[in-house]
Amino acid sequence: MILPIHTYGNAVLRKHAEPITKEYPNIKDLISNMLETMHYADGVGLAAPQVGFAVRLFVIDLEALREDNLELADFKIAMINPEMLEMSDDSAVAEEGCLSIPGIHETVERSLSIKIKYLDSDFVEHVDVFQDFKARVIQHEYDHLEGHLFTDKVSPLRRQMIKSKLNNILKGKTSTSYKIKSA
Known about the structure:
Elements: E1 5-6, H1 27-40, E2 45-47, E3 57-61, E4 76-87, E5 91-96, E6 106-111, E7 113-119, E8 125-131, H2 132-145, H3 156-161, H4 163-170, E9 180-181
Parallel strand pairs: 1-9
Antiparallel strand pairs: 2-3, 3-4, 4-7, 5-6, 7-8
């Protein structure tokens, strides 16, 4: 089922997401719905707060980037209750966008390597190291669970320059090819 994506200004995007227990109802259905929603919206990552659930879960599928980088083609993951353990001091700046902030792309600095602990959809614990683009996408989605948006990481000057675009999103004056829920 395709879920509406909550856009900039929705309170759920600023909440610190709550941990998920094994008793959480229909977790595999939520993961499936999030993947379907993300694919429909042509995204590569989606966090539960973006679809209105303030819980610690995000999904990533980089298959769409196969043509640009074969290494990314098989990277599909759901992370439940992720906990960032380490972030490298080495970083890179690259352009990011977000399904919850349609039409805005800005350069963001992110660590090149991360170590993260998480549960998979069967609640099996993993501790993995990710690098480069995978690390970037995970950090972006992880930020959603902390109540942060990528626009929080841009310079004050850039934030001022995109202020009118953000205000238009707040007012529901944005166009997307996917279903959204405005503030």
